[in-house]
Each structure stands twice: as structure tokens, then as C-alpha cells.
Amino acid sequence: MPKNKEISDEVKRLSDIFADISADKRALVKNLIQNAAYMAVKLRELQELIDQDGLIEHYDNGGGQTGNKIGSAVQIYQKMLPSYNQVIKTLAGMLPSGEKDAAIRSADPMAEFLTQR
User: Fold this and answer.
1) Measured between alpha carbons, how far is 78 from 61 in angstroms, rounded to an integer?
2) How does DSSP classify residue 56?
3) HSE-up (13 A, CA, CB side) for residue 84
4) Dihedral (C-alpha) 103, 115, 88, 54: value to the nearest 10 degrees?
5) What pLDDT, on a 0 to 100 scale, did the predictor assign at position 113?
6) What is the pTM assigned to this prediction?
7) What are phi and psi of 59, to 5 degrees?
8) Spatial CA neighbour of 108 closest among 94, 96, 90
9) Tens digit of pLDDT per residue, the chain (117 long)?
10) At what angle do helices 72-93 and 100-107 cross, to 10 degrees?
11) CB 76, CB 50: distance < 8 Å
12) Own/partner long-range contacts of 18-25 (Cβ < 8 Å, ≥24 apart)
């Protein structure tokens, strides 16, 4: 599936989840949903890279130093995930009371998993 299609599909999914946000906050929400959709798609891509390449990568700096280090995809994933979670929490915070938890669980499958434990 082309990346733009994946992002568009994610925008639609998130827009449906956060449809009950008040009209006066729609402009802000649109941008946040765009960002969340982009990050969600990129996080999935990073997960695929991590599954393919593993968590650790070997390096050789050419000066005789070699070793193992945390993979580049893992580092990017670790930096992007908190940003994604913050955007989802911000969106959920704009929902009417009582809808926040359900929206977070719908937007983030990991949150749903954690709340079931």
C-alpha cells in the first residue's frame, strides 16, 4: 500500500475516533490528527525494520573499533513513540468527559492492551 494511502487511511480512522471534539477546536484537531497519522504509519514501518533487522546492529568504524549497538530504527522508534502518545493524549483531552479512555484505547492498541492487564 502506498504510504500516502496508509496515512490517509489513518487520518480517516483517527478522525472517526475523535469526531466528538467540539467545533471550536476543529482547526487544532486537524493538525494533530495529521501528525498522529503520520507518526502511526512511521512507527509501524520502524516496527517492521526492527523485526527484520533486530534490536542490535553491528558496527565497524573503520579505525579498528567494532562492536554492537542499539539499532538505528530502535533509536528513532524510542524517540517518536512518546511524541505520538502525547499527541493522542492531547486529542483525547479535547473530548467530552467520559470518552477519553475509550478514544485512547481505540487510537492506540498498546493502551488497550495495557488497560486489560
Assistant:
1) 24
2) E
3) 21
4) -130
5) 45
6) 0.79
7) -130, 155
8) 90
9) 567 999 999 999 999 988 888 888 887 899 999 999 999 999 999 999 999 999 999 999 888 899 999 999 999 999 999 999 999 989 888 887 777 667 777 776 555 444 444
10) 150
11) no
12) 18/91, 18/92, 18/94, 18/95, 18/103, 18/107, 20/95, 20/96, 20/99, 21/91, 21/94, 21/95, 22/94, 22/96, 25/94
Q: Which amino acid does the sequence have at 16?
A: D
Show the cell assigned to 7: 496515512
Residue 57 carries which side chain, given as an amino acid letter?
Answer: E
Q: What's the pLDDT score for residue 67?
A: 94
Quickly list DSSP for 12-76.
Answer: HHHHHHTTTS-GGGHHHHHHHHHHHHHHHHHHHHHHHHHHHH-SEEEEE-SSS-EEEEE-HHHHH
Instruction: Provide the residue count of the chain.
Output: 117
CA 95 to chain centre: 19
pLDDT, residue 17, reads 86
Give me the phi and psi of 56, to 5 degrees please.
-115, 140
Place of cell 498522529: 36
